[in-house]
Design brief:
Layout: H1 4-37, H2 76-79, H3 87-95, H4 97-100, H5 114-124
């Protein structure tokens, strides 16, 4: 029989390793997402100097109501889409923008690859609403 503190070590250490691996995977996903975002830069911007361009700026997009970035001229369809950006809505939109929001102006940049979508989401989540990069 193991002493109590040793038993806890056998439980805590694997959980700690899982947590560290998860953090490393998120950083890796964000790094991959940054590379993938190069394709999006022709229409979208992120960061402290981001502005609306052909598409809206994407700072703090997760948790934001679709069609609500200040100063961007959205399609009527996107203005009335009625959802908040989260992982599921982001994935559905990138996989099929016109299927998710019939009448949207977004035509390019979609992907059906869940790993790429997750990486893009991880990257975008590193920016708060003001464009400051979060650790």
């Amino acid at each position: 029989m193991l002493p109590g503190s040793l038993k806890r070590s056998f439980i805590v250490m694997p959980l700690l390793a899982i947590g560290l691996a998860s953090t490393a995977a998120q950083a890796q996903d964000a790094a991959a997402g940054e590379k993938l975002f190069a394709k999006c830069k022709s229409c979208h911007q992120v960061g402290e100097t981001a502005k609306n361009a052909l598409g809206p700026e994407l700072n703090g997009v997760f948790g934001r109501v679709a069609g609500s970035a200040p100063g961007f001229n959205y399609s009527p369809a996107m203005k009335s889409a009625g959802f908040t950006w989260d992982d599921a809505n982001f994935a559905a939109f990138l996989q099929d923008p016109k299927g998710k929001v019939p009448g949207t102006k977004m035509m390019a940049g979609q992907t059906k690859d869940p790993a790429q979508i997750a990486s893009l989401a991880a990257y975008l989540k590193t920016f708060d609403a003001s464009g400051k990069k979060q650790p």
